[in-house]
C-alpha cells in the first residue's frame, strides 16, 4: 500500500512535469526545458521520492552517450554499448519521442519492483528503474538521435558509477 502510494505520488509529479514541458514548448520553443533538463529533471523527481540525492549532469558521460547514440543512428537497434557505465536505452518508432517520454517508460517499472524483497514481478523489467534510483550513482549523461531511413528514435542514458549490481539493493 505504502509503496503504491509513493509510486502514485511520483508518477503524478512526473506527469505534471511532462505536461508543463509540453505546454511550454507549444507556446514558446525558447522556454521549453533544455534537452539536459528533460532527461535529468524527471529522473531526479523519481530519486527524490525514495530519498536519493539528485544526479548531476556530466559532460564526459554525456559525450559517451552522444558517441554511442551516433553509433546507432543508422540501424536504431535497441542494443547496449557494453561500456564502463550503467546504461538505459530506449527506442520508439516515428521521430517525435522526447527525453521525458523515454524516462517515463523507464521509471514506470517502479510499479513492478518490490523493495522489501529486492525483486521484480515475474515477466516484467525493473532494471531501468533501479538504475535511475541507484544510491551510489552520482553522474548521468544522455543523448537522443533520430535514426536515418525513418527507423525511429534512439535514446540512451549512461550512469556513473554504474548501478544494478546483482544481489545489492539500489538503496
Ligand atoms: C546512500 O549513499 C550515501 C553515500 O554513500 C550513504 O551515506 C547513505 O547511507 C546511502 N543511503 C541509503 C539509503 O542507503
UniProtKB/TrEMBL annotation:
Keywords: Disulfide bond, Pathogenesis-related protein, Plant defense, Signal
An example Gene Ontology CC term for this record: extracellular region
Regions annotated as coiled coil: none
SUPFAM superfamilies: PR-1-like
Leader peptide range in chain numbering: 1-25
SCP domain location: 34-167
Disulfide bond among keywords: yes
GO biological process, one term: defense response to other organism
Keyword flag Disulfide bond: yes
Role noted for this protein: Probably involved in the defense reaction of plants against pathogens.
Family: Belongs to the CRISP family.
PANTHER family xref list: CYSTEINE-RICH SECRETORY PROTEIN-RELATED
Protein name: Pathogenesis-related protein 1
Taxonomy of the source species: Eukaryota, Viridiplantae, Streptophyta, Embryophyta, Tracheophyta
Amino acid at each position: 500500500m505504502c509503496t503504491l502510494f509513493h509510486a502514485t505520488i511520483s508518477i503524478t509529479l512526473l506527469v505534471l512535469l511532462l505536461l508543463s514541458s509540453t505546454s511550454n514548448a507549444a507556446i514558446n520553443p525558447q522556454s521549453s526545458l533544455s534537452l539536459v533538463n528533460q532527461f535529468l529533471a524527471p529522473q531526479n523527481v523519481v530519486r527524490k521520492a525514495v530519498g536519493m540525492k539528485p544526479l548531476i549532469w556530466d559532460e564526459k558521460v554525456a559525450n559517451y552517450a552522444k558517441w554511442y547514440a551516433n553509433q546507432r543512428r543508422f540501424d536504431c537497434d535497441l542494443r547496449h554499448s557494453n561500456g564502463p557505465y550503467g546504461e538505459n536505452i530506449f527506442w520508439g518508432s516515428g521521430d517525435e519521442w522526447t527525453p521525458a517520454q523515454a524516462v517515463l517508460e523507464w521509471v514506470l517499472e517502479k510499479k513492478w519492483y518490490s523493495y522489501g524483497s529486492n525483486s521484480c514481478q515475474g515477466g516484467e523489467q525493473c532494471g531501468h528503474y533501479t538504475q535511475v534510483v541507484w544510491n551510489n550513482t552520482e553522474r548521468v549523461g544522455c543523448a537522443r538521435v533520430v535514426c536515418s531511413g525513418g527507423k525511429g528514435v534512439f535514446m540512451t542514458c549512461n550512469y556513473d558509477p554504474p548501478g544494478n549490481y546483482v544481489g545489492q539493493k539500489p538503496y
